[in-house]
Design brief:
This protein has 255 residues and is an alpha/beta fold. It has seven helices and twelve strands. The strands form two sheets. Strands 3-2-1-4-5-12 form a six-stranded parallel beta sheet, sandwiched between helices. Strands 6-11-10-7-8-9 form a six-stranded parallel beta sheet.
Amino acid sequence: MNSAPARHVLILGGTTEARRLAATLADDPALRVTSSLAGRVAEPRLPAGQVRIGGFGGPEGMARWLREQQVDALIDATHPFAGTISFHAARAAADVHVPLLALRRPGWVPLPGDHWHWADSLADAARLLPALGRRVFLTTGRTGLAAFAHLADQWFLVRSVDAPQPPAPPHMEVLLDRGPFTLEGEAELLRRHRIDVLVTKDSGATATAPKLTAAREAGLPVLLIRRPAAPEGVPVAPDPAAALEWLRATLGAPG
C-alpha cells in the first residue's frame, strides 16, 4: 500500500515564530517543510527542516518556485517590517492558487507610564528625533541608519546583529548583539550610555520588549515606527498555535 506524498509547506522568514512553527511541523512525516530566509544576516539561526537562502526574483520567481516545488501551503512569517516580500507572497500565492497565511505577532501596546511618540517611517522618525533627545538608543536595524545620517547633534548607540554599513550618523557607537535581552541588561545599557531617548520599530517581539520596560522605568521617551501596510485579504494568525490551526483546516496538519 503506497503512502500519500508529503504535503509541502513553505515558511517565509527567520523570525522566532517562523522557527517555532518549522520545528513543530518538521516532526510530522506527512509534511515536507522548507523555510526561506532572505540572507541579510551573516549567521542566521537556522530552522528545522529544509532551508533555502536568498530571494526568489520577485513575485513571478516566487510563483515559479511554488509551482516547481509543488508547495501546498505558504506561510508568510517574515518580520512585520519586511514589507515587499509580503506583497510578493500575496501575488505569487494568488497566481498559482496556493493557500496563504500571514503569521504576524501583535504590535506592542503602551502601558501606564509609557511616553510613546509615533513615526510613520524612518525618515519621519529622524525628523521628530531632535525634539526628543540627544543621546539615542537606536534599534531599528542596520539597514535603516541612512535616515539618521544627517543628524550631527545627536549621539547614537546603534544595536544590530551585524555591523551596519554607511551612510551612518557621524557620532555613534555600534553594539553587535542579538536578543533575547533582559530588563536588567537593558536598564544598565540605558544608564551606562546616559540614553535619553529610545528609537525602535513596532516589531512586537517579546525577546526585545525589555527595552520598552527599561525606558518606562527610567521615564524616557520612546519613538516608535509604525508597521508598513500589509496585503489586504490575507488571513492572519497572531502566533504559531493559530497558524497550526489554519494548517490543520487547510491540509489536515497536526496542531
